[in-house]
Amino acid sequence: MSSQVTCPITEPLYPLLSCVRLRMGTDGAGITTLAAGAGCTLDCRWCINKKLLKEAVPRYVTAQELYTILKIDDLYFQATGGGVTFGGGEPMLHAEFIHRFKNEIPSAWKLNIETSLAIPAEKLSIVLDDVDLFIVDCKDMNIEIYHRYTGGNGKLMKDNLRFLFEKAGPEKVLVRVPLIPGYNTKDDQIKSIESIQKIGFTRFDMFKYVIKD
Ligand code: SF4
Asked: Of 15, 91, 118, 161, which alpha carbon lies 20 to 30 A from 152's?
């Protein structure tokens, strides 16, 4: 007697923590919805998401299901040139899902990704043609400071920044450079900006982390 094994068709799922609607001026053009996902490769000291990431129970959604949730704001997106921003956590861990999601949404919707770039470069390749704006939180370009603050490998982040510049160019990338209390100084922040400029990027966001206990 022979037994037949059937292979189920699988599709990438997104571990959705929350959708924050009607955002403006924070993460991309126009009105956006932030689709926050679970999972991150870093362990940043002042991470405001850590508690959330631990406590919240993600709901695993298909690309079609997420589109169904988000299309309530279709008119806002189309009228303002806005769309969807994937954040987290580290949404680039779910690059396959994001690529799939791009095929579900109207072409007028913008697609933005907030990322630390602490991910394999292959993940970037998957979504390069799908993304309108990469919002990169680089933490600090000094590898020691970066490691002290995140526990991660700053070289990986820097290699990915260069890769992103080569493949996406400066227009599609906004680099956030924070002043991190207890970890870097204003001088470090300026040095990071200079280092990022040397790569060729022109869009920056300098700000200071506000620490709340
Ligand atoms: S990269 Fe973001 S989500 Fe991940 S630990 Fe750092 S601050 Fe938190």
From this structure: 15
